[in-house]
Predict the structure.
Amino acid sequence: MDVEHGDDVWEALRPLCARVMSVPPEVVVPQARLVADLGADSLDITELEAASEELFGVSLRGTDKTGVSTVGDVADLIVSLRTPAAHSPLAR
């Protein structure tokens, strides 16, 4: 996770993940795997996606999530979607 740009994302994402996955916040660390470590199922992932879109004002629909398996990966994806350059026509 890119800590320099993701601090605000991380501070909001950590309790969100804990609530959605019904785990204590202290186990939600950047390297925690959503499924293997936090026990997320497909409904949890869908709920996390919807809540993240609302909380961070990004759209995760249509994004490539194949490499997203950890909480840090989720934070990085959100940070990249919130970066102005990610929305620039030149970035495509």
